[in-house]
Amino acid sequence: MHIEYSSGFIIYREKKGVMEFLFLRKSNGDIDIPKGHIEKGENALRAAIRETMEETGLNVEPDKFFSMRRYYWFRFKGETIKKYLTVFLSRYLGGEVKVSPEHEGFEWIEPQKAIAEYSKKHYNYDHLSEALEYLEKRSMLEELNSAYSELPGKVTGWELSKKFVKGEGPSNARIMVIGQAPGATEDDTGRPFVGRAGRLLDELLKSAGASRKKVYITSVVQFFPYGNRMPTESEVNACKPFLFNQISIIKPKLIITLGSLASGVVCGVSAIKSNHGSVLRKDGTTYFATMHPAAAVRIKSNMPILKGDFAALKPLVKEALSDKKEKE
Ligand code: URA
Fold this sequence. Notes:
Elements: E1 2-15, E2 18-25, E3 31-32, E4 35-37, H1 44-56, E5 62-76, E6 79-91, E7 105-109, H2 111-121, H3 127-149, E8 175-179, H4 184-189, H5 196-207, E9 215-219, H6 233-250, E10 254-258, H7 259-267, H8 272-275, E11 278-282, E12 285-290, H9 293-298, H10 303-325
Parallel strand pairs: 1-6, 8-9, 8-10, 10-12
Antiparallel strand pairs: 1-2, 1-4, 2-3, 2-7, 5-6, 11-12
Helix pairs in contact: 3-6
The chain binds uracil.
């Protein structure tokens, strides 16, 4: 058996509210995204950027959170070939499309139409539908975040920071992590979990088989409570609808709650010190309640508890990612 590696880009644009993907048309009439072989010494992203430039003349700007890899089999001259394809996503940055001689031309096609045409030939490619779902969910999250960021101006007696720390990660993530509220570093940077607790979280996720880039990270309250105090009940109640809306847009397979606030609000698990490691399954989603990494940063004796919980999380992470990574 022969193994081949290729990569490419889905390039999208929105014209008058209508989404379109860029396709190249081959001489046999088939459409395809710009993609090609990964050469020796190249990684998938470099190869995809080069192939896209060679086949379309366009520069691309890879989306921070979208990349997917699939494999499929095909037979060529009597040989079975296993082909890995990694796909990235870029907004159309403008510029003239200059098609390479191996193609007949190019077309901007609405995703559903393209998916129908593509799947006639490539029944095992689902990167177009995945990209479409990702973009739709991303736009819903943007709308939600824009309303959420205006909450301080709408609530009388607001005592949290007014700086909104938005959730971070792929809009179609299979795994979601929910903390308590941003700390001072998050308030400074505008990003969740980037302080000491955040660095520990990254390590713990890695130990459980999940890279941070593939996980959506958010908190029950997304404004810094000065002094790192526990948010009040009314602050939690004001923020809760935005948290549950994030969950219903993203629809993760696995939700990890960190600490007593998130575990209580999302899983109904109280007394996290004794109930850490609780697993709940509801409506196709698995919930895992554990301690907050900040508790292990502050009190070292909590570290083995947290590490043990993340070791126990490993099979749940695998299950959540199982049909996502690769399929025939
Ligand atoms: N701790 C949290 O609970 N959330 C953050 O965003 C950062 C630290």
